[in-house]
Design brief:
454 residues; nicotinate phosphoribosyltransferase; TIM Barrel; 2 domains; seven-stranded antiparallel sheet; six-stranded parallel sheet; 19 strands
């Protein structure tokens, strides 16, 4: 049986979301609730995040409904009453969502989005919100660090074969592209999202021929306008000399070798040796692409070592965000029926009420500091970051083109202070809490302690 044929977005939820919803229905609780989605803390070595996944979440929420097989399955579990199943059959998302647009840089404790809707609706989309926005923001944040490390050189996503599933591979391709990657090896992502696709050859291709030179010639015949040769199967420098021979044969036919790829060994030393071979042969135009367990720290180290690399292909470490494979992300109730709410659990603080983030810039246009405020506060001179993206269950405006999101990331990254971009021991960006928000937090805390703890 094909599991994709049974994919039902409405069932992408944890069981306790439905059990809570059933109880809310039984208790006639239909008041408006606001939930805030935010990241509590930075992973080691990180100082910023890149927002991604919002457009996918909006698509899923605005089309949200329980139908057919989903209702039959829930009824078959024996956990829910007929009244609740009938209620789900009529359930639609009718609330509003305020969110950071995709591509904005944000920081710990700042809401990625806030959902305000009748409590059953707002509660039941929790798992979906966390799942979608965490993964894509996780990958976009990792990819932005890699793009920064590459220092203007092209970076290509090679992660599909190592991501945690087919869907994760698609999201990694999109999230890395919006963060500044040049393209992807993922052909399906190219079709769905319009991302440029790239690919060369594998070592198996080279070894399938009796001689390495024969494999190079065959590939050049098949792809004369985009020939990139993998030259490290046997010996990288000897492979480079064979690439020079093929390049000369191509030139005689009016074609040009586009590049060579290194996938193993001391990439800094080998790349310099390959560059000398190519330049001595008058092949200054031929680019050197490097791959092989790369991440932002290795790319920075290669640059510091004077590597002659023109482009990088990054796979596993980006596709699974290997150094930080998850965020401490939470979706918490902060208001119900105009009443601010919080929990007192140790180490899991939440800021109460509906909120807005105001960003301030210095005279040079660099980010200066953010202020986390209540949603109805004014903050002269500050840029309000959260925008209404869904109203009464409908999109407020069409989805942003992927190219526009890329430009948004680039613009925010240029304005991010340099000290916050450091890949090792970055400076933390200041996020101030408004006095009004602090007062409301303290009042709510005192009220909860008095009423719940005596």
């Amino acid at each position: 049986m094909n599991p994709w044929s049974q994919f039902a977005p409405e069932l992408v939820t944890d069981l306790y979301e439905l059990t809570m919803a059933a109880s809310y229905l039984r208790e006639d609780m239909f008041g408006d609730a606001t939930f805030s989605l935010f990241i509590r803390a930075y992973p080691p070595g990180r100082s910023y995040f890149v927002a991604a996944g919002l457009e996918h979440f909006i698509d899923l929420v605005t089309a949200f409904r329980f139908e057919g097989d989903s209702l039959q399955f829930l009824a078959s579990t024996g956990k829910f009453t007929t009244d609740f199943i009938e209620f789900l059959a009529t359930l639609r998302f009718t609330g509003s969502i305020r969110a950071l647009p995709e591509g904005r840089i944000f920081f710990a404790d700042e809401p990625l989005l806030e959902v305000t809707a009748p409590i059953i609706e707002a509660q039941i989309v929790e798992t979906l919100a966390i799942n979608v926005l965490q993964l894509e923001s996780l990958i976009a944040s990792k990819a932005a660090r890699i793009v920064h490390a590459a220092h203007g050189r092209s970076v290509i996503d090679f992660s599909l074969r190592r991501t945690h599933g087919v869907d994760a591979g698609l999201k990694a391709a999109r999230a890395s592209y919006l963060a500044g990657f040049t393209g992807t090896s993922n052909v399906l992502a190219g079709k769905i999202y319009g991302i440029p696709i790239f690919g060369t050859m594998a070592h198996s291709y080279v070894t399938s021929f009796e001689h390495e030179l024969e494999s190079f010639r065959a590939f050049a015949r098949a792809f004369p306008d985009s020939t990139v040769l993998l030259i490290d199967t046997y010996d990288t420098l000897k492979g480079a000399l064979k690439a020079v021979q093929v390049a000369r044969e191509m030139a005689a036919e009016g074609k040009a070798l586009r590049g060579v790829r290194l996938d193993s060994g001391d990439l800094a030393t080998l790349s310099r040796g390959v560059r000398r071979i190519l330049d001595d042969a008058g092949l200054n135009h031929v680019e050197i692409l490097a791959s092989g367990s790369l991440d932002e720290l290795k790319i920075q180290d290669l640059r510091d070592a004077g590597a002659a690399i023109d482009a990088y292909a990054v796979g596993t470490h980006m596709g699974v965000s290997a150094d930080a494979p998850y965020f401490d992300i939470a979706y918490k109730l902060v208001e119900y029926e105009d009443r601010p709410v919080l929990k007192l659990s140790s180490g899991k603080r939440t800021w109460v009420g509906r909120k807005q983030v105001f960003r301030h810039y210095d005279d040079q246009g660099k980010m200066l500091e953010d202020h986390l405020c209540l949603a109805d506060e004014e903050h002269p001179g500050g840029e309000g970051l959260l925008e209404e993206v869904v109203r009464k269950g409908k999109r407020v405006k069409p989805a942003a083109p992927l190219q526009a999101i890329r430009q948004r990331v680039e613009g925010d990254f240029q304005r991010l202070p340099e000290a916050c971009k450091h890949l090792r021991e970055p400076q933390r960006y200041p996020v101030r809490i408004s006095p009004s928000l602090q007062d409301l937090e303290e009042q709510t805390t005192r009220k909860v302690r008095r009423e719940e703890l005596g």
